[in-house]
Amino acid sequence: KYHPEELYAAGLFPNQSPGDDGIVAYSEKHKNESLVDSDLVTWYTFGVTHIVRPEDWPIMPIETCGFRLKPYGFFAGSPALDVPPPIAKECHGETCLKH
Predict the structure, then answer these.
(1) CA 20 to 30 Å from 24, out of 42, 69, 80, 95?
(2) What region holds the Copper amine oxidase catalytic domain (predicted)?
(3) Residue 34 sits in which domain range?
(4) pLDDT at 67 > cutoff 80
C-alpha cells in the first residue's frame, strides 16, 4: 500500500542503514491495513554486473535491464474469446445471418 514516507525498498538511507528500516519494517508496521480500494506499491530492485570485454573500449555499448508485469489468474478465462463473430463483407440474403 502506498505511503509517501516509504520511498525505497531498503529504507531512506540504504547504504547507511543498520537494518531496521525497509520492506520488513514497512510490512510489520502496516500488516493489519486493508488493501481494498488503495494504491499498491511494488519496489523493483535490480543490479547489473557488467563484465568488461575488449569490444567495450573506447565506448561501452549498452547494458539493459528490465521487467514485465504479467497477471496470473486475473480473469477466469481469456477475455479475447468473448468476441462476437465477424460479419462477412459480402452478404446476400438469409445466409448472412448464419455466419
Answers:
(1) 69
(2) 1-81
(3) 1-98
(4) yes
Domain count for the chain: 1
The answer to whether 55 touches 61, Cβ cutoff 8 Å, is yes
Cβ-Cβ contacts under 8 Å for 70 (sequence gap 6 or more) = none
Dihedral angle of Cα 18, 21, 25, 30, to the nearest 10 degrees: 160
**68-99: pLDDT as tens digits:** 888 888 888 888 888 787 776 666 666 565 54
pTM to 2 decimal places:
0.44
Pairwise CA distance, residues 44 & 49, whole Å: 17
- Lookup: cell for 17: 542503514
50 Cα distance to chain centroid? 24
Measured distance CA(47)–CA(38) in Å, rounded:
29
What CA–CA distance (Å, rounded) separates 3 from 40?
9
- What the block records as the C-alpha cell of 95 is 445466409
